[in-house]
Amino acid sequence: MVDLALTNGTVVTMNDRREVIKNGAVTIEGNKISDVGKTDEIKEKHEIDRELDCRDKLILPGFVDSHVHLGQALIRACADDMSLVPWLNERVLPLQGIGYQEGDGKLSAKLCALEMIKSGTTTFIEALLHGRYIEEMIEGIVESGMRGAISKSIMNRPGYADQPEAIPECMREDGEKTLKQTEKLIDKWHGEANNRIHIWYGLRTPGGATVDFYRQAVRRAKEHGTGITIHLAEVKEDVRYMKKEFNMTPMEFMEHCNIVGRNVTYAHGVWLPEEDYKRIKKNRCTVSHNPASNLKLGSGIAPVPEMLDAGVNVALGCDGGPSNDNYDMIREMKLAALIHKGRLLDPTVIPAETTLEMATVNGAKATLWRDNIGRIEPEKLADLIVVNLNKPHSAPVRNPISNLVYAAHEGNVETTIIDGNIIMENRQMKNLNEEKILNKVKKLAPEIDQRLDLKIDTRWPTK
Hints:
By secondary structure, this protein is an alpha/beta fold. The protein is built from 17 helices and 17 strands. It folds into 2 domains: 4-61 and 375-429, Roll (Urease, subunit C, domain 1), CATH 2.30.40; 63-366, Metal-dependent hydrolases (TIM Barrel, Alpha-Beta Barrel). Residues 59-422 form the Amidohydrolase-related domain.
């Protein structure tokens, strides 16, 4: 008996042959995909407990957001039109470090999860959670039904690049304490919720840790068999710092600190030099491309076509509420597909199909679930989305991949399934109370600003 069958849809499998099956069906038993094929054939083979008709809709693997800040959803739009370092140290970190009180972190995580689920993201890599309220954020994700790698902040210096005191006092952490906290989180949470939760090491950007400390953290991550993520070459200052202090390129420095391997994801990579691409490929690391965040902060545009040509695994990420303002991977796909055409004056680079790969199979490779998500195949985990392109802004459909990337947005996502469970159906949330979350957010946001005596409003006169 098949628990659930998605029928009559266009199945975008993302398998090795990238097959697209019209009038296709996907069956789910427990938390896994059990069969994929033509609807008529599937119905002949299986007795179905529940059928979800996906006529004129796409059935896709859920998106994998490879760079997320759960704790920043609640401070969306707090620091517009600021460059990275003052943006971080004057607004983003103080608002989380001083502005947040007990319960606020969980609300931020739920708000973030709500948006991700409604826009088709089923799996994410959280980049850098701090010690305060981290467990309540994990609890929020467990309750949401999402699959996520939660990275604990790892640091033993308060610096950022060549600014030795850049990190505000409220967000500074003791090095050994961060390692012990991470191990406690691993013991308690790694593999929980039917293996939907993983705990990673979120290494601070170079300047925030010593070489020996980086090596120690990497060693512990390997001992625990878990992942590592780090912001790398996001701004020019990062590259200048590594060159000045160590006479190394970013990837030479990563190799020097042993921050390499299949379990390592570098966020941004905007200023990676060409000579580093081969090193990234050789070490089987992933680069998370965050075009909206990099543009809004004026950091630059990562050389993604060049990295892809060099064989680098490039995934896609939305980053955080204050740097992107959205956690919508469909919007991010469109931006990633467009900006490189403009940068290189070449409309053939980064076609729609490539950006969909970045959002699914490439993102999956960055995670410890790499062999089980990102594709629609038997025995893969049932992390699926149903997308309706029959909307005024996304019809008519000629090439469904093109329509998805260039014409759709989060409102096209109708159903989200994670670990075999329907988390959203017909845009109605199952695990999270959307109205309750939004009402709490509306009330709490001004309170958080007031705790730091911040008044954030339009530059225009408001009566």
